[in-house]
Amino acid sequence: MPTNHFTVADIALAAAFRADMLVNSGGNPVLTDFIEPNVAAAMINLELAALWDVLVSTYEDYCIKHIKIDVKAAQEDYPLPEDFYKFRKIFPITNNKRGEALRKFNLEELGHADTLDALSLSPLDQTKYKVSGWRLWLYPVPASAGQLEMWYVPQFKPMTNLEDRVDFRFPFGWEDYVIDGMAARFLEKEESDSTPQRRTQAAALQRILAMAEDRDVGEPFQIIG
Question: What are the sequence ranges of the domains in the chain?
Fold first, then answer.
């Protein structure tokens, strides 16, 4: 997936500049000793994760992925993807065609069968699903093998190195949101007033949400992986 040109180090320096926490070292601006690089990287991840949550909760399909799940006869549960965050839809695949989305079952339904053997007597397109913990559960359990297509919202992927670049999927203007948020965190770390930075960050968030909403006035904006 393409990325923009901002690295973790770039964002940290920009935030330190707004918080007036840069020092000169050999003619180059660097973070003060008060801010450790690994702490700055952690702060960037916190700000980006918060923005990710806002975008996902505001526009449910802002970013969406889908995977195929190979179903085995009489198997009732399957692991969710490692990057799973929120469930959207799951479809049975029959004769290379996508069927109607499966419905969710309630735990109370598990006690309605006369015997456990009866759980394995359902066609794939008549089973139901439930997401619990890190597993996908099916009931009634499919009687034969098949395939499901699951659509879900992935988790925010944190960065680990100072030279990592931020994923492009964030709307234009995300830089101001993150930089002002980090600058506020820097100031709060030294117990200084961060009100101006939090105020400008809130304004940046409103611009981001407005731009994400207007990306396509005819259809909801989606990134599909």
Answer: 3-60+156-224, 63-154
